[in-house]
Records
---
Amino acid sequence: MICHDYKSALPELLLDPAAPSNASVREHLKSCPACNEEFQSLEATFTLLDSWQAPEPSPYFDQKLAVRLREEQALPAAGWFERMRSRLLFNTGRQFRPVVAGALALVLLVAGGTFADLSGFPYPDKAPVSATVNDLQILDKNDQALQTMSLLLQDDGSSSIDSVVATPPRS
Ligand SMILES: [Zn+2]
């Protein structure tokens, strides 16, 4: 085996260092600084990935999204383009539904990860924030303030507040 082959075997070595099939790679790493360096950097990358945590969606995200969806359903379609688009999205028959569901799930994942800002979608200048969403956003801010406070206090009393606040009611 040459270095190139050893390098492609490095991830396997990292995942299962004690495997008998990796013995030759382990031996090679002892004598080859280039491969060893590659292995170290791969290990560092994996360590970094282990410590990475996906951000939580903001509290009340589900409720806010549900309110937005109800508002969008209640709005009349804007014009022929909008009508055509919503027909394509929702009325094309069952064979497209998995695709649409998949796309929506992707949108939800991305939106959830990035603190969904749906305020401009899809009627940029016609959709003022409704009272319900406004209330939820205020609750959201209060919640964050409470969490910050309980973090600052860090005593027994704060944990009870925290546990109440950290589990908003699911609709
Ligand atoms: Zn090598």
Note: The mean pLDDT is 76.
---
Amino acid sequence: MRLPKFEYLQPTRISEAVSMLQSNPAAKLLAGGTDLLVNMKHRVEVPPVVVNIKMISDLDYIRHDNGAVRIGALTPLKRIYQTPFIAEKLPALARATSFVGSFHHQTMGTLAGNLCQQNRCKYYNQSQWWRSTRPTCFKAGGEICHVVNKEETCYSSYCGDSAPALLVMKARVALQGAGGSREILLGELFSGDGKTPLDLRKGEILTEIIIPAEAAQGVSSYTKYANRESIDFPIVGAAFWGSTEKKAYRVAFTAVDKSPVRGHRIEAFLDGEDLSQAIVAEASKLASKEATPVKNSIFSPGHKRKMMGILFQSAVNEATRRPG
Ligand SMILES: Cc1cc2nc3c(=O)[nH]c(=O)nc-3n(C[C@H](O)[C@H](O)[C@H](O)COP(=O)(O)OP(=O)(O)OC[C@H]3O[C@@H](n4cnc5c(N)ncnc54)[C@H](O)[C@@H]3O)c2cc1C
Ligand code: SF4
């Protein structure tokens, strides 16, 4: 499959990349390209301009800063799970990054690219030929949704693996745009709109992921349910973080809604409790209420809801088996 024609730009500084995005509003950033280039080949994304940020130096690092861990946007996924501190102290992130696609995706794919990947839907992630048998849907620029056609909303799902792991760690992201830089909680990056899943200002680039010191003081894990063990997006993914000392817990899911979602009901239920098998089993019954999956994949919403509870329990078991 061939790429469509596009203008190729290769900045060497972040400010240069920001001004390229500012002057080309329809341009797309290219990091590892493992998500964008596939979408371009399928003609679901056809940007006239592609801005390759891989030549920008100093966006590929993992640094310690007063207990916090700072990860540059272009850090490959493979380096993240191969870093001993992350494997030992932030196992949810190590597992999530090691579960992305295949080894090739983990070698080329970057952490920011993983967080900023496009939402997915069985009517969208298809070849142009496959899609030509139906009217074009909202996300691809048309006037219909083949999943829920009640309002002009796209119900595609966010399917990134690393986002739930970083959400339960209360990670923040640094963004740089024309007006300078700002830092937001990772959860604020996601718009909840399937058509435009990221809430970025014009020309903004995600430059760094910041994991607070507290994250390494608890136990964590990420579990993924997929068709095949390798080269598959999650059907459902669940992340868990907990401080057994403070009896405080955080839960997040992916592939079940337009954005990755926090399991606030489960968190409130577990707050202040010891993690016994019975209480975790009780909490897992709340999982199905934490998101609104729709029929945008070959798996039914009911099946996804059921798997959310099962995966939450296995994430807790996996996390608490490890030393904190
Ligand atoms: C066969 C296959 C299987 C896959 N399996 C999985 C999987 O199991 N789990 C999973 O999570 N993903 C999966 N992916 C998707 C993809 O490989 C990964 O998400 C990867 O981490 C994307 O990173 P990248 O650097 O290649 O992103 P790119 O493709 O370069 O970019 C992805 C998107 O993010 C934007 N972007 C990139 N960097 C920035 C930045 N710094 N600031 C703002 N926007 C940015 C780009 O414009 C683009 O829209 C799969 C892909 C394929 C083709
Ligand atoms: S949810 Fe609807 S609008 Fe969105 S990609 Fe799927 S078919 Fe298209």
Note: The mean pLDDT is 96.
